Amino acid sequence: MSRDYTKYKVEGLGENLNKRKLVFTIVKDYIEKNKPSFEDLQQVFPDDVQGSKGFIRKESDVKNPKHFNMREPIKIKNGAHVVVSNQWGENINGFIESANKLNYQIMSNQVPAKQNQVFELALDTNFPTSLVKQLTDNRKNEDFLTLTNDFFEKQLRTSHKYFGPAKLFEALTNRYYDNEADEFEAFFSYEMEDYEAAFRINEDEWELKDSLNESPLLDQILDLEGLEVSEVNSLDFKLYYTAYFKYVIEQLAYCEDSTMLAEFIVAQALGYSLKIEEEGFEYSEDWLVEFIDKLLLNFYGIDVNNEDYQGEFSSYGQYFGVSSDLEINYEKIAQEIIDSVI
Length: 342
Description:
This protein is mainly alpha-helical. It folds into 3 domains: 7-109; 129-192, no CATH class; 200-341, no CATH class. The protein is built from 14 helices and 8 strands. Helix 5 packs parallel to helix 7 (163-179) and helix 7 (163-179) packs across helix 10. The longest helix has 18 residues, at 235-252. It is elongated.
């Protein structure tokens, strides 16, 4: 199926506009010319044009900033600021109909992607390094980013193991959006609540903490996903582990206990597993330390090797059974994650 990469031109306002830019440009122009109140604006551009996520909101009332263009608030009557939805796909046709009624002349230049276009996401045993590199190299390639989003939306309907790499994609693209806003417009979001039922693990943060005290995360993943201990270094395990790590760490963050969360991270980095010990399976724990470091870096922008995190942290095993003295301040790392989640 071909993909729609239509670009738009609005007479007197601009050309080569993607869907997000088309909507924003017209709404901004309408506000500047008509000086509407917020109530008037919502009548002209009602929510049902966009769909379930809303069209225009007061900047101070936005509950999910990922769904709106928060970088470019528009001042309206009485000094309030509003922001415009960035969630546009097939619903663009309804918006164009509304804009035509307001006498905006919109022309399009449809350029569909080639039907035999080759698209292959770098999900291999070198994950997440190869995927991060591919996403970084293509961070300004809108066609590639759209295809990547399509891939994850399709795969997430079949398996929650893709939740981890999808959230990596979200984190990386959003980070580039923040840093390069003038050049980069893609913005993707995969909401945890849409997938949490698939994880078959405690949803309550306190019950989750207790269950991880009884059975390490690594062991729970092996049991829940039907994997063998010998598969610990496989791509499937890495994908599942990334998904569960992201899900669990952000659930535990709601306990607001930086010492506990720090011990959880340490337990993961050290590869704590009762199953592996019982079966006498030997594997190098070094890869898991590096793996956790990469997840912290790409999910949260935390480089554990940065001098800001040098210090001491003693894990006494009171939460997850792992005792160790480390020269990295994992409690500071945990607090930053808590602050970013809550």
